[in-house]
Structures are given as C-alpha cells and as structure tokens.
C-alpha cells in the first residue's frame, strides 16, 4: 500500500497517520478542525481541512483515489457512517471504519465496510498490516523483532517454505497453523504449504512488511 487517507485526527487517527508516514506511505490526513490539521500538516504528505461527510468535497479532493481510507471518527458515529458510504460509492478500493462500541461495530459490519476495534498499540498494528499488503496480524514485541501472521493464498499453495524465500527477507517461520487447532512448530524448508494455513512469522518490522507482499 502506497497511498492512504486517515479521516478523523483524534489520538488514534493522528497516531495512525504518523506511523503510516514513517513506514513510507503517502498519507492524506483529513479533519474538519483546523487545529488538528495544522498539528500534522508538516508530518504527512497532505493535510486537508474539510467536512468528510460532504460527498462532493471528497470527490473534488480525490480522497477516494487512495489505496485505503481509514475513517477514525469513532465518537462521531453518524459522520463516520456517512463518510464511509460516500467513499465506497465513489469507488475507494478499501474502506475501514473505527467502531467504538459493540452496537456500533455490529451496525457498521451490516453496512459493509471493514470495521476496526482498536485498543492499545492498535495504530501501529494496523499500519504494519496495511503497509504489508499480505499480513493478517502484527504483534509488536520488546526489542528488535516482532511477530506477524500471514495466510497462505491459493497462488502459494503447493509451494515449499524454501520457495517463498523468507530467509532472504530475514524472516523466520516459527510455526504453521492448519485449521483451528493443528499446529506444526519449527517447520523445515521443504514443508509444503496448503491454502488457508496461517504462518507465524518473526522478524524486524520492515522485514515483515516486505515479506508480507509475498502473501498479497
């Protein structure tokens, strides 16, 4: 993922915009409050003050033309819902919306967009997953290495771990999970992969992001 929009610059949105920028994304940060736009304008590619519920304004500024839009107006539920609807209608390829209560999460899921339920460190976790293109989860660890999860797609099924070349990416496969409970710890390079398996990966953050592209 190269281009992202973060709409709603509360603490989570600000953190996500900054982390995505640090990881190399061209971030468009959007909020209707000038103070928040001014706060982040020198740290992201573009910062825009606008009403994100205005469909014409979204279209005019090309907000829907990014690879992924994350609507983080968690406390403004109706505004987030309207913004997400407009982005999907305009053809944004991926829209994620932050839900702050169980009821709101259920409503958003019924409407169609991907729903976030962020907690501690969620902004960094989400940023890494989005930037990788293929990781399904990311867990920061103390020190230089982190954990990530990647799912084997149909295009990778039938290949071996050696075929993927993860060692060249400085990423190690700790285990493979097949189904709900079957886990193979310490798989060897000749381990054949099956579609739908989950690979538990260990590596530095940027190495995991690069390796994630193998599973996109």
How would you describe what is shown here?
The protein has 216 residues and is of the alpha/beta class. It folds into two domains: 3-124, 3-Layer(aba) Sandwich (Rossmann fold), CATH 3.40.50.720; 134-215, Regulator of K+ conductance, C-terminal domain (Alpha-Beta Plaits, 2-Layer Sandwich). The chain has eight helices and eleven strands. It has helices spanning 11-22, 34-40, 55-60, 77-90, 102-111, 122-132, 161-164, 205-212; strands at residues 3-7, 26-31, 46-49, 68-71, 95-98, 114-116, 135-139, 146-151, 172-178, 182-185, 198-203. The strands form two sheets. A six-stranded parallel beta sheet has the order 3-2-1-4-5-6, with helices on both faces. It has a five-stranded antiparallel beta sheet with strand order 7-8-11-9-10. Helix 6 crosses helix 8. The model has no long low-confidence stretch (mean pLDDT 89).
List the SSEs and their pairings.
Layout: E1 3-7, H1 11-22, E2 26-31, H2 34-40, E3 46-49, H3 55-60, E4 68-71, H4 77-90, E5 95-98, H5 102-111, E6 114-116, H6 122-132, E7 135-139, E8 146-151, H7 161-164, E9 172-178, E10 182-185, E11 198-203, H8 205-212
Parallel strand pairs: 1-2, 1-4, 2-3, 4-5, 5-6
Antiparallel strand pairs: 7-8, 8-11, 9-10, 9-11
Give a concise summary.
By secondary structure, the chain is an alpha/beta fold.
